[in-house]
Amino acid sequence: METKKEKWSFSKCSAFDTCQMKYKLRYVDNIKTDVTPKQLEDGSNIHKIFELAYDGINTLDELKNGLRQNPQYEEYKKHIENFIKFNELMFEKTGQFKPMHTELSLYDEEWGVVGIIDRVDNIQGRIFVTDYKTGRVHP
After folding, report:
1. Model pTM?
2. What is the mean pLDDT of residues 16-34?
3. How far is CA 81 from each of CA 74, 88, 117, rounded to the nearest angstrom?
């Protein structure tokens, strides 16, 4: 009988690296907390706004208007405006603002590593990966 390979995500590795007891409680004993820290809730909300930003839009102006009309705009104004600036810069440099992929799930069966890439762009034949939380772009 084949043993099921364990999947390792960034969150899972980070929990283990930070505190082995936290890792054990969460991933071995499957104990979940009812408390969601405000930072985690805000991060999830902002991420969802960005994830859905490109749905049904065709122009950069539609993207900007849609984001600025979001019900959570005032609460996350700084983050949304930075996201708009990022898309304006992409358009200025490449003539495109919509990514090739968003929320791209990857899994390496051999290593058991799983991850989700927020944004993937193909710019002049080079692939760029963007992480929304950090705002970092990685060629």
Report:
1. 0.74
2. 84
3. 10, 10, 21
The β-bridge partners of 120 are 101, 129
Say which range, 22-26, 58-62, 107-111, has the weakest mean pLDDT.
Answer: 22-26
In angstroms, the CA 112 to CA 139 distance is 24
Q: Which of 63, 103, 98 is nearest to 84 (CA)?
A: 63
5 or 62: which leads in pLDDT: 62
- Dump pLDDT digits (tens) for 99-137: 999 988 889 888 888 888 889 998 888 898 988 877 777
Q: Structure tokens of 118?
A: 């927020």
The length of the chain in residues reads: 139
Cα pseudo-dihedral 135, 19, 22, 44, rounded to 10: -10
* Torsion (CA) 101, 120, 68, 135 in degrees, nearest 10: 150
Return the C-alpha torsion angle 135, 20, 105, 75, nearest 10: -40
